[in-house]
Amino acid sequence: MTSVPADVALRMEPGRRERVRELVRRHPRAVFGTAVAAVIAVSIVAVGLGSVGIAPGETIGIVVRRLVGLDLGVTWTPATEAIVWELRLPRVLTAATVGAGLAVAGATFQGLLRNPLADPYVLGTASGAGLGAAIALVLPIRIVFIEFGLVHAFAFVGALASVTVVYRLSRLSPWSGMTNIVLTGYAVGALLAAGLSMAMYLSGSSLRQIFAFILGGFEAASWNRLALAVPLVALGSLAILFRARALNGLLLGEEAAGHLGINVPRERALLLALGSLVTAAAVAVSGLIGFVGLVVPHVVRLTVGPNARAVVPLSAAVGAALLIAADLGARLLGDIPVGVVTALFGAPFFLLLLRRAQSGYEL
Amino acid sequence: MTLTVVLALAACTAAAPPSPSPSPGSAAPFPLTLTDDEGTQVTIPTEPRRIVSLTPATTEILFKLGVGERIVAKVEDLALYPPEAGSIPDVAKFGSVDLEKVVALEPDLIIAGGNSFTPPEAIEKLRSLGLPTLVVYAPTVVKVFSDIELTGRAVGREQAAADLAAAMRAEFDQVAAATGSVDRPRVFYEIDATGAIWGPADESFLAEMISLAGGDPITTGSPDKFDIPLERLIQADPEVILLGDAAYGVTAEQVAARPGWNVMTAVKTGAIRPIDDIVVTRPGPRLTEGLRALLGALHPQLVPVPAAP
Amino acid sequence: MSPVPAIEIRSATIGYGGRPIVLAADLVVAEGERIAIVGPNGAGKSTLLRGIAGIAAPLQGEIRISGMAVRDLSREAIARRLAVVPQLATLPFSARVEEVVALGRLAHEDPLRGPGPADRAAVAAAMDRVGLGRLMGRDARELSLGERQLVLVAVAIAQASPIIILDEPTVHLDIRHQVEVMDLLVDLNVRDGTTVLAVLHDLNLAVRYFPRIVLVAGGRIHADGIPAEVLSASRIQEVFGVDPAILPMGPWSVARPAPAERARA
Predict the structure, then answer these.
(1) Taking an 8 Å Cβ-Cβ cutoff, which residues of chain A contact chain C?
(2) Average pLDDT over residues A140-162
(3) ipTM score of complex
């Protein structure tokens, strides 16, 4: 392992890039503020663009009038208002919520499992949600289910059920590592995925819908669904932020965390539950969107370090901005699935970041 | 201003002598509440003038009923019919609907495809925006007729639709009578055979059409299965093979050359015939054409003098 | 001498999953003592440490820290009294040295707001004390083994607990770093009055730096007292199975700088 000799290190003048890096690292609050501003900016752009061209003045007028009741003197047709307020805005807000939730959950599981390759779906949540949705879509009364959004409810329950099963099966001992649970999660996930394949095989005409759910997307975004998803994701993420101390403690290991003053068994159960809840809410609303939960926390850590108090909120903001942008891209590229966009653009970006990070950022 | 014109016209027609149409309840009063094929009650407030057609069959039906110029947008139809529909903008393809474009057109009626042909989320969203959305789905021939009638009532062309449906029923009955006592050959209708062999499922629309045309359809063995293993097909030994995939370039020679297929009677006797898949399966006004095509492929001697359009 | 012992173990049997490793141990550690725990592999030394730290609950008997039963204390309360320096720790993500040392303040910092000025000062002081000032800003995962061990000691110092327990802190270290760590422990003990308990595998280090040695073998405390008595030739032969040559130790013959000279800010 090469390390820069002390005297050489002292002699190296910090270059511009290093100075910016230092500034960024030292002021996570400012970075967070910037990220939030980015989220707002991206949202504005995303609400203003779509397959139907709408003048920016009208878009702003509609939003302002609906939100605060102010009349800006611009006129628009009811159809335009419906597009902006009922189609685009819920979609953008849903993308923000899901992006934030997945990124926070990813950061949580990475810290909890001490595994940089963990993502929100590591404990079988993905397969559980997929299977739940597939069951809802394959049952004969599925028309009723779809109308009342029970597909999403089934996905939610499926996600939580699989995590519970994994947790119970893995028989964790209080102070040892969580490799056990990761492996159990993999096994249970594989089993559920087999069930999902079977459901898809038997699904007949619902196949396309099951597939659409698995690929993930925001077509079904509505104010009603937001009303359910936002509290779950927001409160869950806040609760995780309050447990940032435990996540930090786990950096050195479970026993070390105990020695540092963390009640590891209790915190583990709490963080597991909260992370799964947030993931289930996100997945229930928009299907299985990959990549966000894995990569965003890493990018965030590269900028502000591993302190969970900074990583959690910043991941939420970056995840939200990323998914809003990805959904916009998916819409403009001809309505391709949003998961394809996140992978297509995110993966090369992440590789680039890895290569350029000084001293080779080891995952 | 449009409203004034409409009222003026209505006043004129009210003052005019009664129209010569025979059935009494021919004027469909709007607002109208219909039950669509999924059992949903849909209320249509006024006679629709801006219609969005989300199934190719609906596009054909609307044109046949004379309201084709009222269609403001349609689903993409690769086998476009009628040709006049080509000027109508596409706002949907199989599996996805551009909701923004639909909403921007301010339609007063949307006709969507059931059984997830149109994504149910899209239907839900359109309904939540207050747009009357009727879902049609015809898994049997009889349902095609009732869908034509439903569509007719929805657009204020109840009489024309009833007439069309009656004419189609009559032709189907005629064919049924003619094929009543005839020998029914075993028919395999090939939907596609590039990978697995896709054919009619049990109790499917295709199977029904083949039966009505005087054939004995070879099916996959289950209503939910759409592929048939080659062994099963060989064992069923079709006497006629109809190439529903002829439009994709599949020829009788290709079929005869397939390994294992040469033991089938149809291949030995050369009874492999191309057929226009669209008219046979599209649940619209050209279904009778499809029936005649099937009849011509199975019992050419029974094909009647071309019926009046 | 304070009447309440820093650590008190009374007839404690400690084990895992019902299987006992340490049997009926008795140990009293007064505040300000400096003790080395030695013994062959698998004797139960680490288990003993875990029992003291509250990670392994005693199946029988009592373990007390500063007069209070460990099983009654919250993890935070234990952490404020007792810091544990593990052998090595792996980091799943890269972190700067000062960020790792800051983890020592977890038991003290505001749970919601995080470290305050007092915590930051403690971290800086701990890094100074250990001589890690020059490593500030470096990625902790790139340090040499010796430097990493020093970082872990710094974490414990930042924790500012009156008792520090170390689990084989010198296993991976070269002689220079071994000496550094040992000198540091003596410094903490003598200057700050910190109670130090170190599990060591190196008998020479134990004898040289610790006035009291506890010998653990086969799950029992074999001997407890001054080095000359505990680590007599016959005892070593009996417990470790080797025939030692005991050399009288005079002053060090290897020149090395005094502790004060080595601290570089």
Answers:
(1) 1-3, 6, 9-10, 110-111, 114-116, 175, 242, 244-245, 248-249, 251-253, 255-256, 258-264, 301, 305-307, 309, 359, 361-362
(2) 75
(3) 0.88
